[in-house]
Amino acid sequence: MTDFTSKARTGLAKLCLPLQNSQDLDPLLERIGDAKYVLLGEASHGTHEYYTWRAEISRRLIQEKGFSFIAVEGDWPDCFEINRWVKNYPDTAESITDVLTQFDRWPTWMWANWEIAALAEWMRKYNNAVPKSQRVGFYGLDVYSMWDSMKIIVDYLEKEDPEAAAYAKRAINCFEPYGEEESYGIGLSRMKSSCREAVLQLLLEVRQKAAHYNHAPEAGLNAEINALVAANGEKYYRSMSAFGDNSWNVRDRHMVEALNTIMNYHGPEAKVIVWEHNTHIGDARATDMADEGMLNVGQLVRDQHKPEEVVLVGFGSYEGTVIAGRMWDAPMQEMPVPPAIEKSVEEVLHSASQESKLLIFDQQPALREYFRGWMGHRAIGVVYRPERERGNYVPTKLSARYDAFLYLDKTRALHPIHLKPAGQKTPETFPFGM
């Protein structure tokens, strides 16, 4: 059992590494070594520091270790437009803001933000200085336009079956941070059979709208992933409408299949950086997700490759602000993130010392031992209600869930592109002045 005494917490601080600047990432880069899969998490989809620290890690991995591309928890068609822009393909938009402002589905802020704009601008500059064969890509791994499809579901049901529409909205809220589909199942069970079939047919049509770039760079990969999204999307939505099936597993299996397809496209020497929520990249077997039969990307990638080829990096913070919505499709807003609850991962690290920290578990056996037991670990989704804070903690064995962990004591909300600051073209959002 973990010792939570003040003496033990003071000792804990001495086991952690400092995390103040880019040079403090040197031990993490050493731990990554020759790994081909580096998965970087986040404890919310709306925190500035999660994006900027991941950007700095990614920049160093690209420059120092020759990583091939970044793959994110985003839709393929939208992210492929970013990919085309950073590689300076013909007929791309003039500026990255022109690309990102096309992200018009909720939650727009996840990828349409100034932090991603700054990273993309750096990637384009980097790519312009290297041979075309070495240009670094940016791809989406997700199974849908899920959020587009969910909005269509709700719009359709509000006309055909308002009661079921209410269940669909509630199910969307429940899906964060890692999904509970009982409400959705009840809603579907109350629909008329013809209505249910019409919704599934509508989803099929939505999945078929992905763009194809004939005679364009990466056209083959684009077509292959779009076909994969269509095939696995059918499984995903079918699993959501069937009792007992776990659509979460379908989704994460798809993301790994998409990842493997992109890796194969780039060849045997390819290396990937994955950006997703902690609930996707942290090994599910070290959380209560496993009790529900749920798996995730981190678990699957670990299972498919040698231990030295995979590094999972989690993120967390004690307090601050975040961009989120109070319910599905609600206006995005900056919300407070209250101090973490007692004996959670975040509260323990804060009480050890009020500084940001880097934890590398296999380099510090005592640190690994301290975090081998069950502790609450905060997970904030795109839907967030600070007053319900206690429900946002996932029981976790931290040192088994991740290989390394970035703890950021106080964080702030990211900068959505659709909320452009007055008088500024691009906020200073890339870390350390890069």
Automatic annotation (TrEMBL):
SUPFAM superfamilies: EreA/ChaN-like. Pfam families: Erythro_esteras. GO terms for biological process: methylation; response to antibiotic. Keywords: Methyltransferase, Transferase. CDD domains: Ere-like (cd14728). GO terms for molecular function: methyltransferase activity. PANTHER family: ESTERASE, PUTATIVE (AFU_ORTHOLOGUE AFUA_1G05850)-RELATED. This is Protein-L-isoaspartate O-methyltransferase. It comes from Rufibacter tibetensis.
